[in-house]
Amino acid sequence: MLKEYGLQFSRSIGSQFRRKVWELVADGHPLPSLVQAVLSVHEQVCCEQQKLDRQVRRFAREDEATRRLTTIPGVGPITALTFRHTIDDPSRFRSAAKVGAYLGLTPRRKQSGETDINGRVSRWGDRLRTYQYEAASVLLHRTTAFGLTAPALSGEKMA
């Protein structure tokens, strides 16, 4: 609504967003009552989101397996809880490869005659696969865990 009146501001979230909007409409703008209603709804949604975030973090802290999963770089409470509840009972899988297949993390295969080529990971899978991909990406690109730099983790030769 503000852009239609030529009012723009830098990207922001939560209370900072509401404060910036109020600063723009404070000087006799024709839409203060409408902006007030929209910002009131925005504030309520933000409060509810904070409550849900606290509840998810509490669930993650209360479960031992989930707590251990969150110690992995790039794995937060949502990824850990999703993994924990998707796998449920790990004893039903004979190997880690079976878990990967169950989650849709299987390599793409190209077979022709005697040729059998394993390629990159296929795109099959659910939301957990997306979370795992994001966690792996964080681990490969942003961590210096175990004394290794990001290029060393991604397969490049160490100098």
Could you explain how this protein is built, in words?
The protein is mainly alpha-helical. Helix content is 55%, strand content 8%. The protein has helices spanning 14-25, 32-62, 64-69, 77-87, 96-103, 127-142, 150-153, and strands spanning 107-112, 115-121. The protein has a two-stranded antiparallel ribbon. Strand 1 and strand 2 form a beta hairpin. Helix 4 packs across helix 6. Mean pLDDT is 77; it is low at 149-159.
In short:
The chain has 159 residues and is mostly helical. It has helices at 14-25, 32-62, 64-69, 77-87, 96-103, 127-142, 150-153; strands spanning 107-112, 115-121.
Write the layout of secondary structure elements.
Elements: H1 14-25, H2 32-62, H3 64-69, H4 77-87, H5 96-103, E1 107-112, E2 115-121, H6 127-142, H7 150-153
Antiparallel strand pairs: 1-2
Helix pairs in contact: 1-2, 2-4, 4-6
Offer a few descriptive terms.
mainly alpha; disordered C terminus; 7 helices; 159 residues
Order of helices and strands: HHHHHEEHH
Shape: elongated
Distance between the termini: 55 Å
Oligomer: single chain
Extended strand count? 2
Strand content: 5-15%
Order of strands side by side in the largest beta sheet? 1-2
Rg, nearest Å: 23 Å
Number of helices: 7
